[in-house]
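Practice problem: predict the structure.
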Amino acid sequence: MLRIRYSLLLFICFSLMNCKSENARYHLDKRFWDTNDYEDIIMKLKYGIKPDEKLPSFSDPETRMIVEKLTDEQNFKVVLEDSELGIKHKNKVASDFFRLWKDMNTIYRKRDRKDNFVYDRELLKVYHFGLGLQLLYFKLGNDELVEDADDPNDSSTQTIINSNVKTLISNFNNYLDQINDEKSFSEEGKKLLSKGLDKYFTELVNQYPKANYNEMLKKIELMEKKSHSETVITSLKKIKMLIESKREKKPSNE
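Answer:
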């Protein structure tokens, strides 16, 4: 009986030590990750995991916290939405996060022998992290342009601002390309793909209601025809309706 208790105690101690080791390795004790944390974590996920080992995933209770932390938008929002910080500092942080996200976006793209994504939910949550980040990043960049300009309404300033918004919309169009890989997503993955459309594309259109969405509308119409998921198709239709509702109505000739 004593031997059993001793073995159980050893097991508990070992588990606690292992948990603390993982927390330290992946910075899980920190409330928010900064760009230095992301540099370290991305390096470990890309090069520190053996080919036969699994990446942290939502389905694994032991590593779930790692991917949740990796995709937590509060990590960048805590800085970029802080009204006490200067806009140039926030833009520098946003730029660093954007660079890191592009690296993050390559981590979970592994496919199995049937060409299905092994980590489809993780892949999409990383993409959502990037969409949310870009909404703040591009706004901060344009806000700084306005702040530094002698005349914010000057045509050259407005041209740069409009160009930045065009780039942002183009980046969002890249998310629509995920629908080309719809067959590679699980049903749960398709629902998450749809949620990304509902949340981030709605925020984009509401943030820039007067922007030119012609290319996005063309893309949406093509993806509507290509998709076989009612959930995805419904989300595409909602975005199309929102864009069209923001367009100024032409005066009647009557």
